[in-house]
Amino acid sequence: MRSLVRCTSVARRTYCVAAARSGQELPSVPKKASAKAAAKDVKNPELKRAPSAFNLFVKDVFPMVKKEAPTLSFTAASQKVREQWLSASNAVKAPYEAEAAKLKAAVAAKRAVVKAEEKAKARPPGAYILFVKKNRAAVVKANPGKTVMEVGALMGQQWKALAPEEQQKYKDEAKTLLDAWRNAQGAAAV
């Protein structure tokens, strides 16, 4: 029976009814979670976007609106809170805006720390990339009408035309950076 069931809501419902009539237990079928959302939550669960001043206002005022009129739907209560925010004076909004700015700065500081940690974990650039970082600005300045792809092609041509001794300088620098990175990774693992 299971192999005949297709992944549609009608088929699922039919399967559930048939299993219930026969007294069988249904196997649990968990909903598929978004892989992107799951990865994001695992990566940085504490780095969420800071609430805006309006969000903070809603957090304070919405329960009071619902308490005053418990029969209001969520949409109607939200509309009432929105109207209160729009009609509020700057003096009423100021504490919420200050709190939002403080929270936004705290999140920005956390993000800066996380980005610095990720950058420290990142593998250092290779010889060609070091060459490109050093010389790309001059190539773009010398060829202002060129596209990114054309500039990349010119950089590749310059790298190939570079004398082996000059290439070796970049290769040595890349090896030094890679060794330092590997030592730092080894020290961090221990």
From TrEMBL:
| Lineage, top ranks | Eukaryota, Viridiplantae, Chlorophyta, core chlorophytes, Chlorophyceae
- Example of a GO MF term: DNA binding
Keywords, A to Z, come to:
DNA-binding, Nucleus
Q: Does the keyword Nucleus apply?
A: yes
Q: Where does this protein bind DNA?
A: 47-115, 121-175
> What is this protein's record name?
HMG box domain-containing protein
Where does it sit, as one GO cellular component term?
A: nucleus
Indicate the segments forming the HMG box domain, all copies.
47-115, 121-175
Indicate whether tRNA-binding appears among the record's keywords.
no
